[in-house]
């Protein structure tokens, strides 16, 4: 294990972390307001990646540019999911709501398999393999753009939650659902907005990684599980925690990959997951017990 | 009385008719009973104790790998390996359960922990050469040796899974009417109230965990012997975990017959979709997803909920 390898691992971890953070932000937003662990989050990301892919292949739209189109469309998809599938079952048992999102995940993932088969597809843009070095570490530009873009999007969302009326209503609903309804917030609409925003987040994350990541029906499964880990680490519903957690998990994964043979790096991530769930279910940064 | 007679007739048909069935139909019936069995095992923890496991693949894989490794490395018959696998899975289940329950994990948090444990075992299996890594293990089946759980033809496997299913069903039924059954119901409905009333919630949940993981592991050995091949993704992957909970949810969680009904509806449906939409991989699982959403939306208590409602209405 040389310093060069270690540096490379840290750089890769940081570049991956931003994307994990953004995926987790979306998940955290949905959990914060709806109290649902959304198993369909990764599937929505996968659909967004296909959207990015097809826009590029059929219309030549640059993946970064396509965000202007995909983010609103996936916001609407999220709103539709909430309005049509989740909202009518809002009072059902907790695990039933979890199963609803699992059903959606199975449906979307296999819909993609039926429509586009299991082949790996890639988006080849001129900047796909542009890179530069920092010390001994190689920095691939599309990964840097993805991580930086993800953090920027996360911060924009944070500002939105702090500064706008809808954002404030969202936070109110997350903290005190009944109180929020009592002061006249249209809770149904805000719940839909939260699912929409969460889906838009993960759609942007999906678009940002397509220049260097393959697209396939099960591509986002690992992102979904990773997002669970990040969200638990950052504290369920804790937005800033999710962004920070993304970097921690990204680093843990890439350091694990550098130090351990095979795919044992995943073990590190799951181990962190279980330990945090058992000993700090409120998350690393949360003060209140979030059980 | 009518219900009992109906049950006896169904059982008689399940025992007597299969030798007359064509091979394909027999295979479908074995698959139906296999998922019904896993559903029954999951139901003890997920339905009766209300602890929603998303990682029963962990126990399934432990069962499949233990008996298969013992068979390959030391020639031990899977009939014994099965019991050892079950014991090992129950130990692992107790460990997992003790950690989770001890630290008060409930609802979705428990689901996530079980999912994480199954995934960890999968990663370990993929990376361990001694257990065949991602290539998996092949069970030699060139010569039929009933003493080693290797038969020629499908029919004997059918009767094995039928017996396993019936025994698991009887066990569930007995538990439901026992002291443990009432404790389970109390813990499921309101854990704090149950504790106040003197129910040992931790012990109750752990008992359900041990039983459920033991039975699930036996299903793993059956799978290994029947399909003669296991690998980490098949045995420890999420599809087993989902496959175990689906029949119970669709049929009615926390009821004796729920998982059986669920599997008799779901499995043929999936086989039919696969047949009708040949060459369209994923169509059957897509349908599963849709069915799951529809069942949760319109039949939150599963098929048994419908049956119960019907009975209520018939009463004067």
3D structure, described in words:
- The complex is a heterodimer of chains A (291) and B (316).
- The longest helix of chain A has 32 residues, at 3-34.
- Chain A has helices spanning 3-34, 41-59, 63-86, 94-116, 141-163, 165-175, 177-182, 187-209, 221-234, 239-259, 265-279, and strands spanning 131-134, 137-140.
- The termini of chain A are far apart.
- With 291 residues, chain A is mostly helical.
- Chain A has eleven helices and two strands; from the N terminus they run H-H-H-H-E-E-H-H-H-H-H-H-H.
- In chain A, 73% of the residues lie in helices and 3% in strands.
- Chain A is globular.
- In chain A, helix 5 (141-163) packs antiparallel against helix 8 (187-209).
- In chain A, strand 1 and strand 2 form a beta hairpin.
- In chain A, strands 1-2 form a two-stranded antiparallel ribbon.
- Chain A has a domain at 25-220.
- With 316 residues, chain B is an all-alpha fold.
- Chain B has one domain (2-314): ABC transporter involved in vitamin B12 uptake, BtuC (Orthogonal Bundle), CATH 1.10.3470.
- Helix content of chain B is 75%, strand content 1%.
- Chain B contains 14 helices and two strands, in the order H-H-H-H-H-E-H-H-H-H-E-H-H-H-H-H.
- Chain B has a two-stranded antiparallel sheet.
- In chain B, helix 3 (57-74) packs antiparallel against helix 4, helix 3 (57-74) packs across helix 9 (201-227) and helix 4 packs antiparallel against helix 9 (201-227).
- The two termini of chain B are 18 Å apart.
- Classes of the chains: A mainly alpha (291), B mainly alpha (316).
Which stretches of chain B are poorly predicted, pLDDT < 50 over at least 5 residues?
none
Biggest beta-sheet profile of chain B: 2 strands, antiparallel
**Record field, number of beta strands of chain B:** 2
The structure class of chain A reads: mainly alpha
| Rg on CA atoms of chain B, Å | 19 Å
**Structural class by SSE content of chain B:** mainly alpha
């Amino acid at each position: 294990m040389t310093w060069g390898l270690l540096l490379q691992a840290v750089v890769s971890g940081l570049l991956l972390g931003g994307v994990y953070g953004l995926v987790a932000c979306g998940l955290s937003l949905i959990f914060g307001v709806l109290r649902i662990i959304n198993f369909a989050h990764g599937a929505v990301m996968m659909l967004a990646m296909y959207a990015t892919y097809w826009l590029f292949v059929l219309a030549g739209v640059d993946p970064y540019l396509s965000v202007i189109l995909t983010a609103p469309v996936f916001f609407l998809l999220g709103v539709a999911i909430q309005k049509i599938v989740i909202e009518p079952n809002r009072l059902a048992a907790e695990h039933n709501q979890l199963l609803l999102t699992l059903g959606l995940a199975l449906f979307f993932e296999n819909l993609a398999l039926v429509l586009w088969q299991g082949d790996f597809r890639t988006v080849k843009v001129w900047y796909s393999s542009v890179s530069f070095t920092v010390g001994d570490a190689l920095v691939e530009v599309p990964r840097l753009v993805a991580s930086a873009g993800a953090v920027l999007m996360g911060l924009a969302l944070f500002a939105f939650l702090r500064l706008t009326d809808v954002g404030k209503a969202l936070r109110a609903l997350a903290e005190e659902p009944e109180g929020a309804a009592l002061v006249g917030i249209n809770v149904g609409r805000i719940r839909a907005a939260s699912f929409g925003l969460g889906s838009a987040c993960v759609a942007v994350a999906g678009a940002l990684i397509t220049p260097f990541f393959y697209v396939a029906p099960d591509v986002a499964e690992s992102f979904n599980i990773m997002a669970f880990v990040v969200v638990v680490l950052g504290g369920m519903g804790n937005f800033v925690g999710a962004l920070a957690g993304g970097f921690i998990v990204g680093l843990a994964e890439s350091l694990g990959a550098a130090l351990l043979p095979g795919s044992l790096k995943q073990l590190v991530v799951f181990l962190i997951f279980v330990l945090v769930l058992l000993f700090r279910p409120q998350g690393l940064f949360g003060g209140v017990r979030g059980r | 009385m009518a219900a009992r007679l109906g049950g006896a007739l169904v059982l008689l048909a399940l025992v007597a008719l299969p030798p007359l069935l064509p091979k394909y139909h027999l295979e479908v019936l074995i698959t139906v009973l296999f998922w019904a069995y896993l559903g029954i095992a999951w139901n003890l923890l997920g339905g009766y104790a209300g602890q929603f496991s998303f990682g029963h693949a962990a126990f399934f894989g432990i069962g499949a790998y233990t008996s298969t490794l013992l068979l390959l490395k030391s020639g031990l018959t899977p009939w014994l390996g099965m019991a050892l696998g079950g014991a090992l899975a129950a130990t692992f289940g107790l460990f997992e359960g003790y950690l989770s329950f001890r630290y008060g994990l409930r609802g979705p948090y428990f689901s996530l922990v079980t999912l994480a444990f199954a995934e960890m075992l999968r990663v370990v299996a993929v990376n361990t050469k001694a257990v065949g890594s991602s290539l998996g293990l092949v069970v030699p089946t060139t010569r039929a040796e009933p003493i080693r759980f290797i038969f020629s033809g499908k029919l004997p496997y059918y009767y094995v899974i039928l017996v396993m299913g019936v025994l698991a069903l009887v066990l569930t039924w007995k538990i439901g009417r026992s002291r443990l059954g009432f404790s389970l119901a109390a813990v499921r409905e309101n854990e704090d109230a149950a504790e106040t009333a003197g129910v040992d919630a931790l012990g109750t949940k752990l008992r359900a965990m041990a039983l459920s993981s033991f039975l699930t592991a036996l299903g793993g050995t059956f799978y290994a012997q029947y399909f003669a091949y296991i690998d980490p993704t098949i045995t420890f992957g999420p599809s087993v975990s989902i496959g175990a909970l689906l029949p119970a949810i669709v049929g009615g969680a926390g009821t004796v017959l729920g998982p059986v009904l669920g599997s008799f509806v779901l499995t043929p449906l999936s086989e039919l979709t696969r047949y009708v939409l040949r060459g369209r991989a994923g169509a059957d699982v897509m349908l599963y997803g849709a069915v799951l959403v529809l069942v949760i939306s319109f039949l939150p208590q599963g098929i048994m909920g419908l049956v119960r409602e019907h009975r209520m209405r018939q009463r004067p």
